[in-house]
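tokens incoming
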């Protein structure tokens, strides 16, 4: 299991390891993809303080606090936790679930029928592929939810409920985007997992998959593993941070003798140069230099190979995304999926691609919980028959959030929990549903 989840990182509340076994675990949901398993669960925690105005907030150095609540709602204090595992190491996920003692949980209250207590929500192709494995090892049945329903439901949930969820990234600067809930739709959701899905979202339950590409995160990992012998996605990302794609990519300047590609015309006898947007540093052909150079794979640094590969896939996704937004007249493009992984170079490349092809008229927007859209959608599907009754009250950050580049990863100062399996992202929230 990886030591980062959902982009929420920082110091622990008690300065050390903290286990959650004493908390009431419920609402476990899974998104089992071809490459990664994403897991979301809710833990009850009544360890809250009350200020002089009667408002509750979590004790300790928790990342978020909550505004006043409607007295007509039954309040559930606690946290949403995020974790992920490689699908190829699914047994680690099974052991994690067993260690959390969530097998008898899964409902907000304990009135669930006995027959339903060993059922958990799951989405993604692995919900079908590994159903028997969960049943045989944990005695859990997977209640399967549609993958696209969950992606859209998770994105809508985050954009409406979590303050400072969406952001842009320009010239190394992260800027949060204020979302007007009354003017959210339509938008294009680009989910970059093993492959890429592009979904036109027109409302809470109104969407259409309009495009996609098979060149995505799985391509990066698969080709990268073959070309560099890396054993993990994160090792490949770390290599790319130290690489130089210009060693392998053929640039416009390589073709034009170091010059930009410009169009020349005569205007009333005056020679005028019109730039058409292809600077000498523009990539003309990914991996193009390997054609003309008398070199073998072992003559290139793995760092440069991984950098070129990451650049190629990120540029491709950004271009296709913008062209689909243009096709449908969409002004907002949100990117999610674990390919992004909070990686500054990936985010910057996608941003530059969208800016380039739109001539500066569009901006790529990213989600802090980028990799957990499907799992969150499955999570909130517990209440799909009463979705309007499931609320996250207004979240107010207790600590100043700031974007900084540590290595090549965008970090936040939000706190996180950890346990023996590694760091688990956790958001302190209040959830409520309408009282019966």
């Amino acid at each position: 299991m990886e030591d980062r989840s959902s982009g929420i990182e920082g110091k622990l509340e008690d300065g050390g390891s903290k286990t959650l076994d004493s908390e009431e675990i419920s609402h476990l949901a899974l998104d089992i993809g071809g490459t990664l398993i994403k897991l979301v669960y809710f833990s009850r925690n009544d360890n809250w303080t009350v200020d002089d105005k009667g408002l509750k907030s979590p004790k300790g150095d928790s990342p978020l606090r909550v505004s006043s609540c409607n007295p007509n709602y039954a309040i559930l204090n606690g946290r949403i936790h995020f974790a992920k595992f490689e699908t190829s190491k699914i047994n680690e996920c099974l052991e994690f679930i067993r260690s959390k003692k969530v097998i008898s949980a899964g409902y907000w209250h304990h009135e669930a029928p006995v027959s339903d207590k060993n059922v958990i929500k799951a989405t993604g192709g692995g919900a079908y592929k590994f159903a028997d494995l969960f049943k045989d090892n944990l005695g859990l049945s997977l209640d399967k939810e549609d993958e696209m329903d969950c992606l859209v439901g998770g994105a809508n949930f985050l954009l409406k409920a979590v303050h400072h969820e969406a952001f842009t990234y320009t010239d190394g600067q992260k800027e949060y985007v204020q979302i007007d809930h009354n003017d959210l739709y339509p938008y294009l959701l680009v989910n970059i997992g093993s492959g890429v899905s592009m979904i036109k979202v027109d409302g809470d339950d109104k969407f259409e998959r309009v495009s996609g590409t098979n060149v995505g995160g799985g391509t990066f990992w698969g080709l990268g593993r073959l070309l560099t012998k890396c054993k993990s996605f994160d090792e490949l990302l770390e290599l790319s941070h130290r690489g130089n794609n210009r060693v392998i990519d053929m640039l416009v300047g390589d073709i034009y003798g170091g010059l930009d590609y410009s169009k020349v015309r005569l205007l009333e006898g005056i020679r005028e140069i019109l730039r058409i947007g292809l600077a000498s540093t523009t990539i003309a052909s990914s991996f193009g230099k390997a054609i003309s150079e008398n070199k073998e794979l072992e003559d290139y640094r793995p760092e440069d190979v991984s950098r070129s590969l990451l650049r190629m896939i990120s540029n491709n996704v950004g271009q296709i995304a913008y062209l689909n937004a243009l096709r449908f007249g969409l002004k907002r493009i949100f990117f999610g999926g674990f390919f992004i992984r909070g990686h500054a170079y990936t985010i910057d490349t996608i941003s530059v691609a969208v800016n380039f092809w739109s001539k500066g008229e569009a901006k790529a927007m990213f989600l802090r919980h980028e990799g957990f859209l499907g799992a969150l959608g499955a999570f909130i599907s517990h209440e799909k028959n009463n979705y309007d009754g499931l609320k996250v009250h207004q979240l107010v950050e207790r600590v100043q959030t700031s974007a900084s580049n540590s290595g090549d990863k965008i970090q936040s100062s939000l706190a996180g929990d950890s346990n023996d399996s590694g760091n688990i992202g956790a958001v302190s929230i209040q959830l409520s549903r309408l009282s019966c």
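note: The radius of gyration is 23 Å.
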